[in-house]
Amino acid sequence: MTNNVTGMAGISSLYTFGLETTSNSLVARVTSAGQTDEGVRKSPSEGKAASIALVTQGADLAAGPGMGNARAAAVLGADNMAQAGWAGFGATSGTTSRYATGSHVDLQSFALMTGLAKRLPVSGADLLVGAFFETGVGSYDSHNETAAGDSITARGDSRSTGGGLLGRVEATEGMARGLYAEATVRAGRLSSDYRSDDLNPTLGEAEYDINVAYYGAHAGVGYIWNISEQAWLDLYGKYFWTHTTGADVRILGDPVTFDDVDSYRTRLGARFGYALNKCITPYTGAAWEYEFDGTAHSVVAGVDAPAPTLKGGTGVGEVGVIWKPLPDSGFSLDLGAQGYTGVREGVGGNLSLMYEF
Predict the structure, then answer these.
(1) Cβ atoms of residues 66 and 113 within 8 Å
(2) Residues near 299 by beta carbon (within 8 Å), at least 6 away in sequence
(3) Which of 92, 109, 53, 94 is nearest to 348 (CA)?
(4) Phi and psi for 93 in degrees, rounded to 5?
């Protein structure tokens, strides 16, 4: 009699054996060897994709509510720019999002930043500088399917801690009044882990834990049109770069190398605000974002694995309100909500605090 059986080594190699019997022996002979299903080899990289998504959300917080709150906090009560002091600001955001990565990753995250900002006297311009601390935490679930229709699921957590600098300059006189440029730079450490019971159930749970560096920067330009004393329109364009370094791990005996991951994004949008009174200013906005890369390449046991990617377009909508308890108070609060559709789908919210020392 002759039988064929298959065997899996680690998460990368699949062997077919022919079993042959003789009068006094049983022989197992390798008849073919190949790679495991793409879904199995791709799944570990989903954890890297989730971690880059967490860091890009931190970039959004720094360049969005963080920059706005730094500007608002430093402006409060600063009629004499030369004597204006440092102002404290903070911002938080929480989101639940699904990223289409060729399969998909569900990420629930929370981010926080806090720092100090100051206005500097410049003729014909409003110059803002500041420094901040940032941190983020997230948990994710990833989902892949094999060619046979079997589900490959994984889960894990990501954490980031770092800091950065911000700057913004806006023209306040002449024909260029309302034009502005802004930038942030960020750096820190990013840790993430991964767990799955579906890669090779015979060998048990597949897992890894990595700690890498991240770097990032953003630059933006825009124009604030003061429609009236109460209404304004902010038209802007922003470019984001985020980089995370690679790592080497072993998963169920197989060596796995995660390459560096780079994210390159552009965002074009507009925000409209209207001051109902000196204490309440609601606003609404919309933007279109496009990710040009965000691909998490990996090599499993010496062979390139299929790579999840965040590449593609996402539409963003937002509503919010800025509130001051008292018109002349040094304290104000910004509460907003966002919705995402496209490569990234989900909802988010941000709470921002500003206080002038």
Answers:
(1) yes
(2) 256, 257, 259, 305
(3) 94
(4) -150, 150
The Cα diameter of the chain in Å comes to 101
Domain that holds residue 31: 1-35
Clarify whether residues 109 and 166 are in a common domain: yes
Dihedral of CA atoms 104, 199, 149, 48 in degrees, nearest 10, equals 10
- The span from the CA of 252 to the CA of 205, in Å, is 8
Residues 138 and 59 in one domain: yes
In this prediction, residue 7 carries a pLDDT of 81
Q: What is the DSSP string of 18-53?
A: EEEE-SS-EEEEEEEEEE--HHHHHHHHHHHHHHHH
Q: What is the Cα–Cα distance from 333 to 65, expressed in whole angstroms?
A: 11
**In CATH, what number is assigned to the domain containing residue 75?**
2.40.128.130
What residue type is assigned to position 69 of the chain?
Answer: N
- For the entire predicted model, the pTM comes to 0.89
Q: Grade residue 77 by pLDDT with cuts at 50, 70 and 90.
A: very low
Asked whether residue 343 falls in the same domain as residue 253, the answer is yes
> How many angstroms from the chain centroid is the CA of residue 23?
64
Token duo for residue 326? 């008292």
Cα 292 from Cα 290, distance rounded (Å): 6
Cα–Cα distance measured from residue 321 to residue 283, given in angstroms and rounded to the nearest whole number: 6
Q: What is the C-alpha to C-alpha distance for residues 232 and 235, in angstroms, rounded to an integer? A: 10
Total domain count for the chain? 2
pLDDT tens figures, 298-313? 999 989 999 999 999 9
Query: Tens digit of pLDDT for each residue in 207-220?
Result: 999 999 999 999 99
Strand ranges inside 275-311, DSSP E: 280-291, 298-300, 303-304
AA letter at 232: W
